[in-house]
Amino acid sequence: MTGGQEHAWREFWPVYGRDLATLGDPAPLELSDWFGRDAPVILEIGSGMGESTAALAAEAPERNHLAVEVYQPGLGQLLMRVRDHGLTNLRLLRGDAVRVLRDYVQPDTLAGIRIFFPDPWPKRRHHKRRLIQPEFVALAASRLRPGGTLHLATDWAHYAEWMREVCAAEPTLRNTATDGGWTPRPPWRPLTKFEQRARAEQRDVRDLIYQRFNPE
After folding, report:
1. Residue 179 annotated among the catalytic residues of the structure
2. CB–CB of 17/78 below 8 Å?
3. Which of 119, 155, 204, 207 is catalytic?
4. pLDDT tens digits, residue range 17-65?
5. Is the pTM of this model over 0.90?
6. For 147-201, what is each residue's pLDDT tens digit?
7. CATH assignment at residue 142
8. Domains of the chain: total
């Protein structure tokens, strides 16, 4: 980590961060206690360097935001943004997102799950490593409360098609796009340096937003 990231880690991680390895046996996270209030919770998987995460938390102070990431320098950078923006509605969790959802988040809990630009694993032999798989989508959907949303974004065309196919097969999710296709890019999703580079390399960014409902 950089000096700034290390300083932010020492100062703010004990307050805003937790390590999955220290949580002990599987048990629901007491999110209201951790945030110090009851509010809708948005979970972001793979917050990277935290550019989008911090901006979204700043724009929605009425919501609690939980970022899950394994990359320590990225978490350190996000803590710098927490400090710079004076954010009190953001918490950080270091560890595997599947374990977090499976072992530490209760069903019907989250107002939203965001997964922006996950690793596409473009080679066919690596597709099994992609995060968006039927089992994962079913797990994520079960952790959403009715009406909660799963928001995906990617700049890889094949992965976008894969995401849409997998999510369409989950019976508790409904595509919010009326034509069953892509969602127009939400104006509130920050335009990050990563996305700007994708545009410069002429890769279209596609959004998908699905809503949890209870099928009859």
Report:
1. no
2. no
3. 119
4. 999 999 989 999 999 999 999 999 999 999 999 999 999 999 999 999 9
5. yes
6. 999 999 999 999 999 999 999 999 999 999 989 899 999 999 998 888 888 889 8
7. 3.40.50.150
8. 1
